[in-house]
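Lay summary. Proteins are chains of building blocks that fold into shapes, and those shapes determine what they do. In this project we predict the shape from the chain. Here is one chain we studied, written as its sequence of building blocks.
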Amino acid sequence: MNQNMPTQLVIGCFIALSCAPWWVYSQNGDNRTLVNMTLVRNASVLGAYCLDGSLPAYHLDRGFGAGARNWLLQFEGGGWCNDIPSCLERAKTHRGSTRFMNKLEVFSGILSNNASLNPDFYNWNRVKLRYCDGASFAGDAKFDNGTSLLYFRGQRIWRAIIQDLLPKGLGQARKALLSGCSAGGLASFLHCDNLTNYLPKNTSVKCLSDAGFFLDERDISLNHSMRSFYESLISLHGVEQNLDKSCTGFRYYPAQCFFPQYALKYIRTPFFVLNSAYDVYQFHHILVPPSADPKGHWYHCKLNPAACNAAQIRILQGFRKDMLLALSFFYRHSRRGGMFINSCFAHCQSESQETWFAADSPRVNNKSRSTKSYHRFSPPSLSLRESISRRLKHTFQNSNWTVSSRP
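And here is the predicted shape, written in a compact code that computers can read:
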């Protein structure tokens, strides 16, 4: 591994993670942060609506002290819809309407306001952008057949929320980190550069995607199931017009620019990729979608990776290899970016306290040869939060990005 490369790849942590609960444990017991929902009242001026026509929303927890002028914007995740029936169903749930969303949202992990649980961002202005459009905040279309009406207005929702936050302090931000998980992590790729257009030129802007690096990969039946899914989504939601023009102008199939592996090289803003090479969602829906396993040969393997047979393990390892290959250009050529790729069976690691920063959260140690390049910059036995914070500080040091030390 080239020791002069500023972007370092971390591989390790071969463990299985179960779904984490929403509550946060601390030495003082239950220490949850509940944040009220804010509806974007002026969204209708921009024609920014959720799938069902309801107003978009976000949750804002104000920063304080040294973090009062720093902002962390977190895209909510939650899958996609790619046809009229699935979008109509989605519009009847919290994934397509603010009418069905909880009005109070728990802020944990990277969104926590507890200095001992989230030392780097606890005193920043932290915002969760609620997800209700079904296309990673990227569409701009409408469906109306006289009976049913659906708004595919993710791009306008993004703009409406940002414009609502600007006079609340975002317009005077010193530092801004745009982040997201899953479909929200994909939104971080899609909107990273656009955020800089709204902020002062002297604002230090960075982006982070957690579990958003979805691969353009063949499934076990050799079909491009995910590519086909995205193509229908892009067509329905009118996404292509909002994709990076540098990317779409270069590729024979412009819709491929919805995949981060093709779009990442064109992002100019410093970017950090957090992902598992054995991402559970991609394992279940890209590599082995139900359509590719009608007889259920992978059923037990999906439930428990320890139950996978030798052939299935080889296929999983091949998927991991393909993900690292897809990131190789970024690894070799990025001068202001970074990545943390582990091998946990997980999906989204920054929003849960158990994986972000806790006593028993996944840790990196120096037992694996593949992690030695990482330890040139930080000591062994670090939590995920500590590892990423040190990597952010290292890879973004030329951009005057500093990460506060743990109190």
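What the prediction tells us: The domain at 33-279+326-357 is CATH 3.40.50 (Rossmann fold).
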